[in-house]
Structures are given as structure tokens and as C-alpha cells.
Design a protein that fits this description.
A 5-stranded mixed beta sheet has the order 3-4-5-7-6, with no helix packed on it. Helices cover about 10% and strands about 35% of the residues. Strand 3 and strand 4 form a beta hairpin. The protein is mainly beta. It has one domain: Purple Acid Phosphatase, chain A, domain 2, CATH 3.60.21. The chain is built from 2 helices and 9 strands; from the N terminus they run αβαββββββββ.
Length: about 150
């Protein structure tokens, strides 16, 4: 997920309830969002451009996660990526910032932008993304969030 901007919808919490790991790609907005997510399960989050204050000091600009033999790189703004993920054995890059959900492959690396799970902006839908590991393959899914 990404770009909650301080708003965590009940519909998002329900859709995350079964997740083994919650990854937030920045623009969290408030520590309350992280607290709510941590009640569900393990959370890994990176700092976005709206994340300021003492609560965000513990967040890194990027995180590298090893998960079931797959390597995931999380960064808020893809334009801040200074390395070539394929040369560092990264399987997935998760990023946010644009509020536009997408997933695509580039040089064998899966790039996933879960879109924005927070306030609806730019006439874009609110979304999150699931990543499922099936037969050692990562299957991405963009999941729309109902407005409430």
C-alpha cells in the first residue's frame, strides 16, 4: 500500500486482515496509520515526502526485504531509485508517490505501484496491491477500495 496521507479506511483494514506482511511505500501521514496497521500484523514502511516529525524519524528512505526467497525493494518515489534493481538481484520494486496503481516488468524485475489507499486525489481510484507467491512466482493484483 501507499499514500494513505493520514487516512486509513475501514475497507483497507479489512482487505489487509489476512496479509502476512504489510508494506507501506510512504506518504503515511501520521503515526496513527502505522499503529493501526501494526495491530493487524508485521509492517514495513518507508518515508514519503509528506512524512515529517519525530514519529517518522525511524523510517528509512528505502527498505530491502527478503521474503520467502524473493527480494523486495521499497521506495516512495521511483524517481529516487539510484541503482539498477536487476543488477542487485531484486525481484520486486514497490513504490508509490504518483497515486497511480500499476504493475509491469522491466529487465525481469516486477515494479508495483499499489496506488493510493488514502484520500481520493486526481480523480484516481483508491487502491492497494496484493502480492501472492504461487509456485515460486510473484503474482501482483491491484485491488480497488470501496469509498466510505
Amino acid at each position: 500500500m501507499s499514500d494513505t496521507h493520514g487516512r486509513l479506511r475501514e475497507a483497507v483494514l479489512k482487505k489487509l486482515a489476512h496479509c502476512e506482511l504489510i508494506i507501506h511505500a510512504g506518504d503515511i501521514g501520521t503515526v496513527t496509520v502505522l499503529d493501526q496497521l501494526q495491530r493487524i500484523g508485521k509492517v514495513i514502511a518507508v518515508k514519503g515526502n509528506v512524512d515529517h516529525g519525530s514519529w517518522s524519524a525511524r523510517l528509512k528512505e528505502s527498505e530491502r526485504i527478503d521474503f520467502y526467497g524473493k527480494t523486495i525493494l521499497v521506495i516512495h518515489n521511483i524517481d529516487d531509485l539510484t541503482m539498477h534493481p536487476e543488477s542487485k538481484n531484486v525481484d520486486v520494486v514497490i513504490y508509490g508517490h504518483s497515486h497511480r496503481a500499476s504493475n509491469y516488468y522491466n529487465n525481469g524485475v516486477l515494479y508495483v505501484n499499489p496506488g493510493s489507499a488514502g484520500p481520493r486525489r486526481f480523480r484516481l481510484p483508491t487502491t492497494i496491491a496484493y502480492l501472492r507467491l504461487v509456485d515460486k512466482q510473484i503474482i501482483p493484483e491491484i485491488v480497488p477500495i470501496e469509498e466510505n
